[in-house]
Amino acid sequence: MRYSAFRIFKEGLTGNKGWKAVWREPEPKPEYDIVIIGGGGHGLATAYYLAKEFGHRNVAVLEKGWLGSGNIGRNTTIIRSNYLLPGNEPFYEMSMKLWENLEQDTNYNSMVSQRSILNLFHTDGQRDAFVRRANAMFLAGADAELADAAALRRELPFLDFDNARFPIKGGLFQRRGGTARHDAVAWGYARGADSRGVDIIQNCEVTGFDIQNGKCLGVETNRGAIKAKKVAVCVAGSSSRVMATAGMRLPIESHVLQAFVTEGLKPVLPGVITFGAGHFYVSQSDKGGLVFGGDIDGYNTYAQRGNLPVVEDVAEGGMAIMPMIGRARLLRSWGGVMDMSMDGSPFIDKTHIDGLYFNGGWCYGGFKATPASGYCYAHLLAKDEPHPTATQMRLDRFRSGNIIDEKGVGNQPNLH
Ligand SMILES: Cc1cc2nc3c(=O)[nH]c(=O)nc-3n(C[C@H](O)[C@H](O)[C@H](O)COP(=O)(O)OP(=O)(O)OC[C@H]3O[C@@H](n4cnc5c(N)ncnc54)[C@H](O)[C@@H]3O)c2cc1C
């Protein structure tokens, strides 16, 4: 069924009786060509591009809970491609281009809103670093725009420009950045994959792998064994736990990241704004809530809730750049388990076990990567070679020294 204005009109006139379920609820088959573990954004996008771009339809996505129950439905919805390093920037710009056409491509309203992202800077040194970043963005075909404090005062007069500790000296805009409705992204990909024959199986937890003589032949699940020619792991915060059942130890730690939303307010924020002297990022949802977040809690955990010190730290960041936020009432907060890699960058790679593939280590930047991650992972699964924009996202990069240390802060997950 194609969604269109005409369809809404027709259904409105006929009692809305013609709408179909957005995806089927199939029983797992005993065997597939490709089994994808994890029905988050990345797993579903992989299934979608496998079916649409690479013609693989005998595919299953196994999700232990329900679609959208993981980080895809918990993030602060920011999309952007304002990276610096060659291993990252072209990949995130590819993702940005896929975002720009996502709704037409999937025929699903994912509420992609290119309302801009602004990274504030507070020192001259930080400005120079942002100029360098802007040039790297131009080289990868992205857009970037430097604004001084006077220009920002005209556009965003509510910011605390003369803050005694962190005066705002300007900012780097990416006007094509913005937000997308996170769970609708999962639903759109699920619908697109399902309509091309992919089986999306919810409440199906993978508990182990069938590995014989160095080859992965399938998976064990709480709904029985399923054979597969290729098994693609894509479980974000559960990466270490799932890969441990295949005997692999990853350069990944699991940490909790919190997010917050206020009561609905009249439109006040035109786009996404990030604080440059601490960790705070904020946007306004279409319902009017200010959606914001900050740093990870900083200890290893699989809990989907965090603690008060980070709440305080995030609130301090917000108050430093826009004191008016102190008058908004907080409605909800929640957490998600992040697969923090040691250099802050992800993996899309084969493992040393034949037929077993791994996608993870997205830290807290994986939402914006969803389309490109799905596309590149599908490419790897279909052709057995990395997509040209994801060649550095390898599992052996810590051994070879080719790390992608975007922030240049070293090999500790809590620094990224
Ligand atoms: C609070 C918060 C804010 C964030 N903000 C942003 C942001 O603004 N911008 C951005 O780019 N990124 C952001 N992120 C990061 C982003 O959400 C994640 O990097 C990304 O969603 C991870 O990929 P995913 O969607 O596939 O993960 P998930 O949705 O977590 O998918 C993994 C799935 O695997 C399933 N699974 C796990 N184990 C098994 C198993 N054994 N068998 C079967 N299924 C299994 C899980 O149930 C889950 O559904 C944020 C994350 C959080 C938590």
TrEMBL record:
Its main location: cytoplasm. It catalyses: sarcosine + O2 + H2O = formaldehyde + glycine + H2O2; sarcosine + (6S)-5,6,7,8-tetrahydrofolate + O2 = (6R)-5,10-methylene-5,6,7,8-tetrahydrofolate + glycine + H2O2. It comes from the Bacteria. GO terms for cellular component: cytoplasm. Its cofactor is FAD; FMN. Keywords: Cytoplasm, FAD, Flavoprotein, FMN, Nucleotide-binding, Oxidoreductase. GO terms for biological process: tetrahydrofolate metabolic process. Coiled coil: none annotated. It is found in: Cytoplasm. The keyword Cytoplasm applies. Pfam families: DAO. Residues 34-78 form the Rhodanese domain. Its EC number is 1.5.3.24. InterPro entries: FAD-dep_OxRdtase (IPR006076), FAD/NAD-bd_sf (IPR036188), Rhodanese-like_dom (IPR001763), SoxB (IPR006278). GO terms for molecular function: nucleotide binding; sarcosine oxidase activity. Signal peptide: none annotated. The keyword Cell division does not apply. PANTHER family: FAD-DEPENDENT OXIDOREDUCTASE DOMAIN-CONTAINING PROTEIN 1, SARCOSINE DEHYDROGENASE-RELATED. Belongs to the SoxB family. This is Sarcosine oxidase subunit beta. It comes from Roseovarius indicus. The lineage of its organism: Bacteria, Pseudomonadati, Pseudomonadota, Alphaproteobacteria, Rhodobacterales. The gene is soxB_4.
